[in-house]
Amino acid sequence: MDTKVTVKGYAKINLGLDVIGKLENGYHLLRSVMQQIDLYDTIELSRLAEAVVIKNVLPAAVTDNGMRITLTSDSDAVPLDQNNLAYKAAKLLLEHDSISEGVNIHIIKKIPVAAGLAGGSTDAAAVLTGMNELFGLGHSKDELQELGVRLGADVPFCIMGGTALAEGIGEKLTPIQTMPEMYIVIAKPLIGVSTKYVYENLRLEQVTHPDTEQILAAMQGKDLREMTGLLGNVLESVTIEKYPLIRELKDAMLETGAVGSLMSGSGPTVFGIFDTMEKASEAEIQMRRKYPQVFIQAAGIIC
Ligand code: ATP
Question: Which residue among 15, 159, 279, 280 is buried most deeply as judged by most CB within 10 Å?
Answer without folding.
Answer: 15
